[in-house]
Amino acid sequence: MTSEPAIETRFFAFESDFVDSLRCIPMIVRYKLDTCRVKVQLADWAKFNYQEKDDLAEHPCHSAAEIEAYAAYVNELVWKYTNTVPSLLKSLDPAWVYTYVPAEVREKAQEWNCPVISANQWIQLDVLERFALVKLSRSGHEGRNFPRAMVEFGLAVAC
Fold it and tell me: What InterPro entries does the database record attribute to this sequence (predicted)?
């Protein structure tokens, strides 16, 4: 169990181009997958039906029992469609819990000509917003939603 309060299910406006169909993994699900350290490939996600995807967004994943149940449900779904079990994240760098702005977020803001995020602004964001900015900053992730997130979270007027 984390020291953070439970995360309410919500979708961000920057996800609006896919959230109705859930064709991509929304941040709320990505957060929960990281919490239980399970890695789901987009190809596997695409095989889940809409209700299963929605269940993954809605199911709680905060207490130790909830995290265990969530991981079991994810494993069950991946097995159902692929006859494989998902891999586990080897390590987790929860940069979203830092009280300072992670370097990768500062660098991504600079790359997109977004304003510098102060430490005070960072800690005023909720954990899911910080998680989203970290994930949108990491290499291998399409970062085009980073400026949209910055605007949505009140950190920029435009980037």
Answer: NarM
